[in-house]
Amino acid sequence: MTARCAVAAGPQGSVAGWTIESFDSVSSTMDEARRLAAEGAADRTVVRAATQTGGRGRLGRPWVSSIGNVYTTTILRPEIPTARAAELSLVAAVAVADAVTRFAEPVRLKWPNDVLLNGGKVSGVLLEAVAEGASLSAVLVGIGINVASHPDLPDRPTSRIETADADTVLMALLDTLAQRYRQWCLRGLDGIRSAWLERGPDLGSPMTVGLGADRVHGSFAGLEMDGSLRLHLSDGSIRRIASGEVIG
């Protein structure tokens, strides 16, 4: 399904159709974007900060925010049902992968939206839907990319882009995000899904998915048309997982 979106160039002074609000330091770009969205900030407004004092990733994990990396949250206002907001997670992940590929390889994707460079996490995407009653008001797309440094995490390897600075990487991201968002608006998730699968895990590779306190073991069987994970279980059945975390 397509979406009604603003896909034309943005106002004078914008970059690649995005209007950028820059800050030296914020608690998190997500918090600042939420505030601006509530105040009526336009579609395709990007909040960018040099550092965050309270950055966070998926599941509320703290996100280390050293100076020299990319920290952004983008306000999007597509006219879609709230149930489709999660599609933008894949859109953003593919756009980030496109941007990172301009500077380094190999780039792979881990469901639903982690971007890996040389096997280490170089970027993550955090999505938040803002609803007014039953209507979707905005989707906030938080993206962090390791450039100058990368955190040491106990449960996963990390990496960074070593061949560019944060400003250069941000400009590449805005370009690729504009392209992928337009593609999704005009043609739906199908092409985005195909691009994700090109950089995703190999079909049949072992996979463990965390669902809260539960663990589901199986092998990767692709993505559903809506971007949900297909997991092939040992009994031969296929389990569809709309929300979870790949942990192995």
Helix content: 10-25%
Q: What is the percentage of strand-forming residues? A: 25-35%
Please count the beta strands (DSSP E, at least 2 residues each).
12
Average the pLDDT over all residues and give the rounded result. 91
- What is the overall silhouette? globular
Instruction: Going across the biggest sheet, name each strand in turn.
Output: 1-2-3-7-6-5-4
Number of helices, counting only DSSP H or I runs of 4 residues or more: 4
What order do the helices and strands follow? EHEEHEEEEHHEEEEE
Low-pLDDT residue spans: 8-13
N- and C-termini, Cα separation: 32 Å
Tell me about the largest β-sheet: 7 strands, mixed
**Which structural class should the secondary elements be placed in?**
alpha+beta
Radius of gyration: 17 Å
Describe, in short, the structure shown:
23% of the residues lie in helices and 33% in strands. By secondary structure, the protein is an alpha+beta fold. Strands 1-2-3-7-6-5-4 form a 7-stranded mixed β-sheet, sandwiched between helices. Strands 11-10-9-8-12 form a 5-stranded antiparallel β-sheet, with no helix packed on it.
What attributes characterize this protein structure?
248 residues, alpha+beta, 23% helix
